[in-house]
Amino acid sequence: MIAILDYGLGNIKAFANIYRELNVPFTIATDRDTLLAADRIILPGVGHFDHAMQRLNGSGMRDALDEAVMGQRKPVLGVCVGMQMLARSSEEGGESGLGWIDGAVARIRFPSGTGRGLLPHMGWSSISVSSDVQLLQGLDEALGFYFLHSYRFICDDPTDVIAMADYATPFHCAVRRGNVYGVQFHPEKSHHNGVRLLKNFAEA
After folding, report:
1. How many whole angstroms separate alpha carbon 90 and alpha carbon 110?
2. What is the pLDDT of residue 113?
3. Cα separation, 123 vs 180, whole angstroms
4. Catalytic positions, written as ranges
5. Can you list the domains of the chain with their CATH numbers?
6. Partners of 161 in beta bridges
7. What pTM was computed for the model?
């Protein structure tokens, strides 16, 4: 059973629709008991880092999430801002992140002399997979995924990086440490690749 964590942010219905089409059992978790009963967890997120952390901390599920992921070692997939929340902190605000993967979140900056690029990074971008983890198996890397973000995750340990993308500069677009996974892109908006990734997570 996959729990899609509903703390007031993220494309909950889109994830639910994909898992319904795949006939993968899922639930939408709005309380700690539902969350702790699940085998795997999706942590969605959109918008501002501080707002997302404040919503999660105020949801009544933060302690249960820590217990499920860090205590019981259940697989978790952070998506977009949900991935950024896995870090220690973000330049976007002053709240502490979950700190499950060593790293911090910084604003996308364009190299000097290249002109001023547009933010957010919005649209489809190819990816380069650098790991054989099951989450990223069977994907069309050239087609890539749909992105919408102005900030990027910077891992302290390069072995935690499982895929890269490029906008302004190359950046870490997918990360993994043990049972903790994160993707900067939106699989729920990425058609075949997104469906395959979410199916992979259900089977990882």
Report:
1. 18
2. 58
3. 25
4. 80, 186, 188
5. 2-106+117-203 (3.40.50.880)
6. 175
7. 0.96
